[in-house]
Design goal:
The complex is a heterodimer of chains A (823) and B (454).
Chain A: H1 33-48, H2 50-53, H3 70-73, H4 76-87, H5 101-115, E1 131-132, H6 135-146, H7 152-155, H8 176-193, E2 199-200, E3 203-207, E4 212-214, E5 217-219, E6 222-226, E7 231-238, E8 242-254, E9 263-269, E10 272-279, E11 285-295, E12 299-308, E13 319-329, E14 338-339, H9 343-346, H10 355-374, H11 381-395, H12 402-415, H13 417-420, E15 421-422, E16 435-437, H14 440-451, H15 458-466, H16 473-482, H17 487-497, H18 510-517, H19 521-532, H20 536-551, H21 558-577, E17 590-593, H22 595-601, E18 612-615, H23 629-634, H24 643-655, H25 669-672, H26 683-691, H27 694-708, E19 722-723, E20 726-727, E21 732-733, E22 739-740, H28 743-751, H29 755-771, H30 780-792, H31 797-806, H32 808-811, E23 812-814
Antiparallel strand pairs in A: 1-15, 2-14, 3-13, 4-7, 5-6, 6-13, 7-12, 8-11, 8-13, 9-10, 9-12, 16-23, 17-18, 19-20, 21-22
Chain B: H1 3-21, E1 52-57, H2 64-67, E2 93-100, H3 113-120, H4 141-149, E3 158-161, H5 178-181, E4 185-187, E5 190-191, H6 198-206, H7 214-240, H8 245-270, H9 288-304, E6 310-314, H10 333-337, H11 343-369, E7 382-387, E8 403-406, E9 417-425, H12 426-436
Parallel strand pairs in B: 1-6, 1-7, 2-9, 3-6
Antiparallel strand pairs in B: 2-8, 4-5, 7-8
The chains are: A alpha+beta (823), B alpha/beta (454).
Chain lengths: 823, 454
């Protein structure tokens, strides 16, 4: 069956609803494609499709009566569209009745088993291109491996994404600049973590918050001074007599305004000035100021003074100076050195004396480290020796320690393709079958990056080394979900599926939105006109009126945006951990809020900073991810809502039926406003005009009603009853016929009559994220089976998760044209 | 064969492999012909200062009526409203009409003009419509030139952007986001991710730390990296033998990247690393205006210090929906660009077009004020192409692209003119620019049909 292995066809994420066959038909497989098509399929198509796609018609260049050879018939991309469109009820078009269930089922079975050639008992797992760690995975991995939190968001460029996710092997590329950054990162990480000597001066840390005095504030749990307020703060430290190195670590973090302020920072030790520095605007920049001291007594005082240097009278010029910490290193006298912290973690035994024993020790250490970093055993004995030779070349240089040599070789491990790329191998003895299980190390790695976005832990590696991971899969998944690292699934999956990541960076203008909601845009135009005419008096008065108008409206603070992201993550996390039905992602009576966000949404009685589950008042429209701030904001334009983007968001990410992209030369909505001759129309009316164009209507009839249901939420996610002084009308109907009066009713429709569409869409999204490639036509059966499983078990999240984890694409790989790795 | 000879053969093989990896296998050397076009009037032989080339990309096209100068071509023309900020450097620029990016036109691949405008701008080839499984563009002209002359400077090329964050989810109409966020393509499937942090760009060029320690830090870093690079190169080679298909492509990308760093380290040993009398930038400014200015500064520094001769700067990705609150525009650029001839919206878009030109003008003025080694200005020895792969953003057209070519290319160009060229692919202009860079003469680039003709 697989001898004529087809080239894969990317099909996009949309895979729609339908009836799932449970077994492969055996009868039709015996016959030629043409005869089966003619005898079994054409009669169905004749009844329902030929009106546009037969008898001389070829709408969309599809004519089913012109397929005359096997080659013309067996085209997966054509039939995938047929499957998709008939399942979604988009075809037959224009609200003609759907295919009768028996016909639909017959057609689906023929498409899946004959055209796609799927063997349901042994489906093609597909081909995953080797995946480079993205910057989230890299950061987590390094943290777990060596204990260093390397800020990859800051240091590395953003990763390219594919199919909506940034962990897709094909889309993750490498460049000289990135490689340079990897090498530099490896060196920096290793030098931070690995001690260069067994003993070193003791160090004690005086935390920034220990500094008290005038104008000492706290922000994000750190001691904060601000550039426009003089401050004078002190802390004490106790130290035995001796020589000391004192390192003051401060951080300048400014909110940029056109004329940022400057400030002088003076650091005194025991009343004596040791540093005097001036700082301007920096973005989270850390400065370390060092000085050495010979102390005879035990009790010492550190004092920090901040003197504002202007510009004066600019209260909006806020630059924070964080006092991070003071590190006191000493006594520096060698006789008083202590064991280096973390030394045992990297060097469990003393360094031997002889060259040979050193080499053996280095080999042992580096082999163990490389195995952990490469997520599989180093089968090639030579590999450890090569690493040891690299270490030796360094530690035999004058002035270098053994530890530095080993650290250097560890940096090479972190720059190796075996670390940076997730290389996978088939299970031993794959035989001649076209597909094989992936080996247990590959499975451990897939699981770990799927659920934790990081490297497998010791237990996963231990099970893999004994070949027992596959046998304990369910228990391990359960264990992994209970681990705090599983928060990464919510963060990175919803961050991209729902674009919750973008909410913190997306451009938004709350002031403009408030003015528009109030229907006072004319005032703004008058204001600009007054400015242009240099009519200061009128301009001043208008500006005052506008200020009064927006004064009562809350701004969209940075922290509110972060809370919105946290809400979505906490919500998804809850569904995962409590194993809730996934329909609750759309429709529920709860969400996750803290005091600030609750106020922002107008939900009463929530006190405190931490996010917690809040049962919403009866009738609240806020339950489910679609009406959370994150989704509402990322689907808005900077100055207004976008019902089109919102409709598209639901169609693409929840129903799996994104409309085709707009044709060229489509005007923006603002352009349709000109039809209203100076009146300020509600968006609903503008869209209606837009839809009158037949070129636009076929897709906008699908998007707009869904998007308009959300019009009670403005462009920054707040409830409103009117827009431009006209009451909001959220009624509408779906292209598939269901009608609704409110967003709550729309949600209900989505989780009832469109439940399977949602199951199928979320399954495809989660699978894409889990396996690192886009869905292909041969995945249809795998996804159908997971949907069936969800249907049979009330849609609980664990069924979806285990469905994906147990699926062929996750468990297996192609053996032909697949690589083998044996380091 | 002697050991030395073997090594030389190996080196040659490596070099030619690198060229193949950069997609240059088919480049055929032809005798240099002097173009008859006025834009490329003089021969470039016999000058001391090198010629530099940069491409600056601005998204969503420009309002044509406000972009194009009224009146006749030639030296005696009045700048248009949008180009008015270039008044101080008018004699150093050429406004060129007639250039097109036909590869960005919709074909069988349907919608996605923004992704195509970005992905084709420097490659001149039709890009493959894919959400991510098989990204395929072509080698961009900057990389073609870099592969020819890149070995003469510490950096073969420099890639910069002012886009800090990327959109999650999918990009334009089924095209992978890579087409919009990357201008430079080292091979058909290897975009070169640009740097957005001016501090990192600076430290990469000149080293990090206090001013007087930078060069030493850089040398130390390169020394330390040498053995690591050797090691991982071996690792990658042994893996490569066992990989195939797309996995092998990935490992090839890794290998070329390592090789390029090794070559840079080798070059650094023989070349002086410049140490500008400046502090490194303090990171990414929150203000876009300041960010753009700093990235232009980095470009200026890189050229001034001859750290590289080829660069790309993406001011914003094609299709960018950035609002410009500082100039009173709170709607997104892309949303506005579909203005359907509403005068009020057109005025806003034109303000944005002009805002970008202002930033470019400030950069050119700085380039013009900076003397090069021969006393001529840095701008004189440069060719800076500023433009967009979209012409009229409202209608997504790709003919008559808004393009300004600044600098004299060391004498190869005759700036100070408005050229109404006949309709031709913009890649024709690239070919002529590449000629002026003094590398091997290219037979063609992307969809080019000939050398540039006015």
């Amino acid at each position: 069956m697989f001898s004529n292995f087809r080239a894969s066809h990317a099909i996009g994420l949309a895979i729609a609803l339908g009836v799932t066959a449970t077994a492969a038909p055996t009868a039709i497989a015996e016959n030629s494609a043409v005869s089966v098509y003619q005898s079994a399929i054409v009669p169905i198509l004749e009844d329902h499709c030929f009106e546009c796609h037969g008898d001389g018609y070829d709408k969309g260049k599809v004519a089913f009566d012109r397929l005359e050879t096997d080659a013309q018939i067996l085209k997966p991309d054509l039939w995938l569209k047929v499957l998709l469109n008939t399942r979604a009820g988009l075809m037959p078009a224009e609200r003609k009745p759907r295919l009768p269930p028996a016909d639909q089922q017959k057609l689906e079975r023929w498409i899946k088993y004959q055209v796609f050639g799927i063997d349901p008992e042994n489906p093609d797992p597909g081909r995953v291109t080797v995946r480079r760690l993205n910057r989230v995975e890299y950061r987590n991995t390094v943290k777990d491996l060596i204990g260093v939190d390397y800020n990859t968001d800051h240091e590395f460029p953003p990763d390219d994404s594919g199919f909506g996710f940034d962990n897709i092997g094909d889309a993750l590329t490498m460049s000289p600049m990135l490689m340079e950054k990897y090498v530099a990162a490896a060196q920096s990480i290793v030098s931070e973590a690995v001690p260069s000597e067994a003993r070193k001066p003791a160090a004690q840390i005086v935390q920034g918050v220990a500094f008290n005095g005038d104008n000492a504030k706290v922000k994000w749990g750190k001691r904060q001074l601000v550039f426009n307020e003089p401050a004078n703060v002190s802390a004490r430290v106790n130290a035995v007599p001796g020589s000391y190195k004192v390192k003051l670590e401060i951080e300048v973090n400014g909110s940029y305004v056109p004329d940022p302020g400057r400030a002088r920072v003076i650091f005194k030790v025991d009343g004596k000035e040791v540093h005097r520095e001036e700082y301007g605007y920096f973005d989270e920049k850390v400065f370390t100021l060092e000085s050495t001291h010979k102390w005879a007594s035990n009790d010492h005082t550190f004092n920090i003074q901040l003197q504002p240097l202007g510009p004066a009278g600019k209260p909006e010029t806020i630059i924070d100076l964080f006092v991070n910490k003071v590190t006191v290193e000493g006594p520096l006298e060698k006789s008083q050195w202590v064991a280096a912290p973390q030394y045992d973690k990297f060097f469990p035994r003393p360094v031997p004396a002889s060259a040979k024993a050193r080499r053996a020790y280095a080999t042992e250490l580096l082999t163990a480290f490389a195995q952990k970093a490469y997520r599989r055993p180093l089968n090639d004995a030579d590999a450890g020796a090569r690493l040891a030779a690299l270490a030796e070349a360094t530690y035999t240089q004058p002035g270098k320690t053994f530890e530095q040599g080993v650290a250097h070789a560890m940096a090479a491990v972190l720059a190796s393709p075996r670390f940076l790329f997730r290389l996978e191998a088939p299970a031993p003895h794959p035989g001649n079958a076209p597909f094989s299980d992936i080996d247990e190390y590959s499975l451990a790695t897939r699981l770990s990056y799927f659920l934790w976005s990081t490297t497998p832990d010791d237990e996963l590696m231990r099970l893999a080394s004994r070949g027992q991971l596959r046998a304990n899969l369910a228990a391990q998944v359960k264990r992994m979900l209970a681990d705090p690292r599983a928060g990464q699934l919510a963060r990175n999956f919803t961050g991209q599926w729902l674009q919750a990541r973008d909410v913190e960076g997306i451009a938004s203008n709350p002031r403009e939105i408030a003015i528009r909601d109030a229907g006072e845009e004319a005032k703004l135009k008058q204001l600009f006109a007054a400015f242009r005419a240099q009519d200061e008096k009128t301009a001043h008065q208008l500006a005052q009126e506008i200020d009064d108008l927006v004064k009562s409206k809350p701004d969209l603070e940075k922290e509110t945006r972060a809370d919105m992201r946290r809400e979505t993550e906490a919500y998804f996390d809850y569904v995962v951990h409590e194993d809730r039905p996934i329909t609750e992602l759309i429709d529920s009576n709860y969400t996750f809020l803290n005091e600030e966000l609750a106020k922002y949404y107008g939900v009463p009685d929530v006190v405190g900073k931490e996010m917690r589950k809040v049962t919403l008042p009866a009738g609240s429209p806020r339950g489910g991810v679609l009406t959370q701030g994150s989704a509402l904001l990322v689907t808005s334009n900077p100055d207004r809502t976008s019902p089109v983007k919102r409709g598209l968001f639901v169609l693409a990410n929840f129903l799996g039926t994104p409309p085709p992209p707009p044709p060229a030369n489509v005007p923006a909505l603002e352009a349709s406003e000109s039809e209203f001759h100076g009146q300020a129309p509600a968006l609903r009316d503008v869209l209606r005009v837009h839809r009158e164009n037949p070129l636009c209507s076929s897709c906008h009839n699908r998007m707009d009603p869904i998007g308009l249901a959300f019009e009670n939420f403005n462009g920054i996610g707040q409830w409103r009853d009117s827009e431009r002084k006209q009451p909001i009308d959220a009624q509408g109907s779906l292209i598939t016929g269901e009608t609704f009066n409110s967003v709550s009713e729309l949600k209900r429709i989505l989780v009832t009559t469109h439940r399977e569409d949602f199951y199928r869409t979320l399954t495809a999204k989660l699978m894409t994220y889990a396996i690192g490639r886009g869905p292909e036509y041969y995945d249809v059966e795998t996804i159908d089976r997971i949907v069936r499983r969800l249907d049979d078990h009330d849609g609980h999240f664990s069924e979806l998760l285990m469905g994906v984890v147990e699926s062929a694409p996750f468990q297996k790989m192609r053996t032909q044209a697949s690589m083998t790795v044996s380091n | 064969m002697s050991k030395l000879l073997t090594r030389e053969v190996e080196r040659q093989l490596q070099l030619s492999r690198r060229q193949v990896l950069r997609g240059l296998g088919a480049a055929i050397a032809l005798p240099t012909l002097i173009s008859a076009s006025p834009a490329f009037a003089r021969s470039v032989a016999g000058k001391a200062a090198p010629t530099r080339m940069a491409f600056v990309y601005v998204p969503n096209g420009a309002i044509p009526a406000a972009w194009w100068p009224a009146g006749n071509a030639g030296a005696d023309y009045a700048l248009s409203p949008t180009l008015a900020p270039l008044a101080n450097v008018q004699k150093n620029i050429q406004v060129i009409s007639g250039l097109g990016d036909v590869s960005a036109e919709p074909g069988a691949d349907g919608a996605g003009d923004h992704a195509r405008a970005g992905g084709t701008f420097l490659t001149g080839v039709r890009i493959k419509k894919t959400a991510g499984s098989d990204i395929h563009a072509g080698v961009s002209i900057d990389q073609v030139v870099a592969s020819q002359i890149g070995h003469l400077t510490r950096f073969a090329s420099l890639e910069l952007t002012c886009d800090v964050v990327r959109k999650s989810g999918e990009c334009d109409s089924g095209y992978a986001c890579a087409y919009e966020y990357n201008l430079a393509w080292q091979s058909a499937n290897q975009p070169l991710a640009p740097e957005h942090n001016p501090q990192f760009a600076f430290e990469r060029l000149f080293g990090d730390g206090p001013r007087n320690e930078r060069v030493a830090n850089l040398k130390r870093r390169e020394n330390d990296q040498h053995s690591i690079l050797d090691y991982v190169m071996e690792d990658a080679k042994s893996l490569n033998a066992r990989l195939d298909g797309r996995d092998r492509q990935k490992m090839d990308q890794y290998l070329t990247s390592v090789r390029e760093i090794e070559q840079r380290i080798a070059i650094s040993k023989t070349m002086k690393v410049a140490n500008p009398d400046l502090d490194a930038p303090a990171g990414v400014p929150a203000s876009y205006e300041e960010h753009v200015a700093l990235m232009f500064d980095m470009l200026h520094l890189a050229f001034q210090t001859d750290s590289t001769r080829v660069a790309t700067l993406l001011l914003a990705r094609e299709g960018s929906n950035r609002p410009f609150n500082d100039i009173g525009i709170s709607s997104g650029h892309h949303d506005l660009s579909h203005h359907k001839n509403t005068p009020e919206i057109i005025a806003k878009v034109q303000l944005i077009d002009k805002w970008y030109v202002q930033r470019f003008a400030a950069f050119l003025e700085k380039m013009e004020k900076t003397p090069d080694v021969d006393g001529q200005s840095l701008l004189h020895h440069s060719m800076i192409l500023y433009g967009s792969g979209n012409a009229d953003g409202n209608r997504h057209t790709h003919v008559n692209l808004p393009v300004v070519l600044a600098g004299a290319g060391g004498g190869a160009l005759q700036p100070g003119q408005y050229i109404k060229a006949k309709e031709q692919p913009i890649t024709n202009l690239y070919l002529s620019m590449a000629d002026a860079m003094g590398g091997e003469r290219l037979a063609s680039h992307g969809d080019s049909t000939a050398r540039f003709q006015s």
